[in-house]
Design a protein that fits this description.
- The chain is mainly α.
- The protein has 8 helices and 2 strands.
- The chain has helices at residues 8-34, 39-61, 70-85, 87-100, 107-122, 145-172, 176-205, 208-234; strands spanning 131-132, 142-143.
- The longest helix has 30 residues, at 176-205.
- The termini are far apart.
Length: 239
């Protein structure tokens, strides 16, 4: 298969489904920033923007189905994974600031948290044969179990830490309306984690039937979960 050639199913998945998700994420980021440029707004919108960036990088390498471009495809795929899962660091900073205040979680501390998470996540590229994506895999990413274990461990630690502090915030609320809004946020966090776990597992199992089923489920999750987070806190933090 040559450059810029791909089957209709993959085209629809990458450019229609994932393209719609990327645009949806950017719209949510815009709506949050439109309410104000406070640090909380910037951080929350940043989590949406990083995922959108990852999806847009996917647009670039998806049609590069040629043996001479295999290394470039692999590098771009790593960048896709990096940006998509970097959202966890932004959500963690967001929750910590809400819990501790901006005076305690300063901009410097926020940057350190994001950088540390980014470095740990980046170590995935040093795993030998962690991802194979070439003609032998029909240009679909296939993960090794060790690579899966590493990435899912990093994502899980980030999620559990964020969820722990988010739940502490939930317990502090006495107003029922605030609790209800924060439940949307918690549900959104869980949904994103399920999306991440299912996607990583699907790539590792490399069974086409599972890929097809999960692509439908993940599309719903990746729409509902970010909107749930936005509905829970994104509409209020600029007020």
């Amino acid at each position: 298969m040559g450059l810029y050639q791909m089957d209709l199913t993959r085209f629809l998945q990458v450019y229609v489904a994932q393209g719609s998700v990327a645009i949806f994420f950017l719209i949510l980021a815009y709506l949050i920033l439109k309410r104000g440029k406070q640090r909380l707004n910037v951080i929350l919108s940043g989590s949406y923007i990083t995922i959108a960036v990852g999806l847009f990088i996917n647009f670039i390498y998806a049609p590069m189905q040629h043996p001479q471009l295999e290394l470039i495809v692999l590098i771009l795929y790593y960048l896709t994974i990096f940006f998509i899962f970097l959202y966890t660091a932004f959500l963690l900073c967001f929750v910590l600031i809400l819990l501790k205040s901006e005076k305690i979680i300063t901009t410097s501390k926020q940057i350190i948290i994001i950088l540390v998470y980014a470095v740990i996540l980046s170590c995935m590229v040093f795993i030998p044969k962690g991802v194979v994506i070439n003609a032998s895999t029909e240009w679909k990413p296939v993960w090794s179990w060790f690579y899966f274990s590493y990435v899912i461990a990093v994502v899980t630690i980030g999620f559990l830490t964020s969820f722990y502090f988010a739940f502490k915030i939930y317990k502090l609320f006495e107003d029922e309306l605030l609790q209800k809004k924060w439940r949307y946020f918690l549900i959104g966090l869980i949904g994103l984690y399920i999306f991440a776990t299912g996607t990583l597992l699907s790539n590792t199992l490399n069974i086409q039937a599972i890929r097809n089923i999960w692509s439908i489920i993940s599309f719903a999750l990746v729409i509902i979960s970010p909107y749930s987070i936005y509905k829970g806190v994104g509409k209020q933090i600029g007020d």
